[in-house]
Specification:
The protein is mainly alpha-helical. It has two domains: 106 residues, no CATH class; 102 residues, no CATH class. It contains ten helices and no strands. Helix 2 crosses helix 3, helix 3 packs parallel to helix 5 and helix 6 packs across helix 7. The longest helix is centred in the middle third of the chain and has 29 residues. It is rod-shaped and about 85 Å long. The termini are far apart. Keywords: Membrane, Transmembrane, Transmembrane helix. This is DUF2695 domain-containing protein.
Length: 228
């Protein structure tokens, strides 16, 4: 290529991999021999990485504040020349933020769909049960046995099998389970069962393995028992 002419914003484009290959190679050769430009380039890289890291770990509700305090004001990172004067940096920061937002929203949306979450939780009362307490305990025992052999598939398949066999498979029953943290078979077993009087778990007991996340669930399960 013809002699390369350095332009404002080229370092930012290089950091994002947005320069044409010939210009990228030419600019990299310049950076090898120019310590000042190389230091500025490394600082730009650190700013972009910092922006990505800050936003990738922030919960979605707080990202709005991150825009003002972390990206566009850029108070925490002070490069050797004013990056904020270069529009391309703002574009890069915005792209990083949008990517982070989309990823977090994808995870939240997937979690919501997977369990059909119902927000209108109610206080638990034994008087308000849709059927007898002893039948609930029979259902929990049934779920424990069945889910140990066939892991939960994020639905009410096993729960409904039991309810149908007792002529209790009604919308009222499913609604009751959802309002008490039971949005699928394993949550009925691990969450709804905790509302009922039980003998406290002791070390050495056998924990139910209800799905691939059973290890993390049972740790949380025991921690809640410990706090009672």
């Amino acid at each position: 290529m013809e002699k390369y002419t350095f332009k404002t914003g080229d370092l930012e484009l290089l950091a994002m991999g947005a320069l044409p290959i010939e210009e990228e190679n030419a600019l990299l050769l310049i950076l090898e021999s120019n310590e000042v430009l190389r230091a500025e380039y490394e600082e730009i890289q650190s700013v972009l990485f910092l922006t990505a890291n800050q936003n990738s770990i922030r919960p979605v509700p707080h990202l709005k504040g991150a825009i003002a305090s972390r990206i566009f004001n850029n108070d925490e990172v002070k490069p050797r020349f004013r990056i904020s004067a270069v529009n391309i940096f703002r574009i890069a920061a915005a792209l990083l933020l949008v990517g982070s937002l989309a990823f977090n929203l994808f995870l939240l949306d997937g979690a919501s769909k997977s369990s059909d979450v119902v927000d209108n939780k109610e206080e638990f009362s034994l008087e308000a049960l849709p059927f007898e307490e002893k039948v609930f305990k029979e259902m929990f025992a049934y779920l424990k046995d069945e889910l140990s052999a066939q892991p939960c598939e994020m639905d009410f398949r096993t729960t409904k099998e039991f309810l149908s066999s007792h002529n209790l498979d009604t919308q009222e029953t499913i609604s009751f389970l959802q309002k008490h943290d039971g949005h699928c078979d394993c949550e009925v077993l691990m969450n709804v069962a905790q509302y009922f009087p039980n003998s406290q778990y002791r070390h050495g007991g056998i924990l139910p393995k209800v799905h691939m996340a059973s290890k993390s669930m049972t740790v949380s399960f025991l921690r809640q028992y410990k706090q009672k």
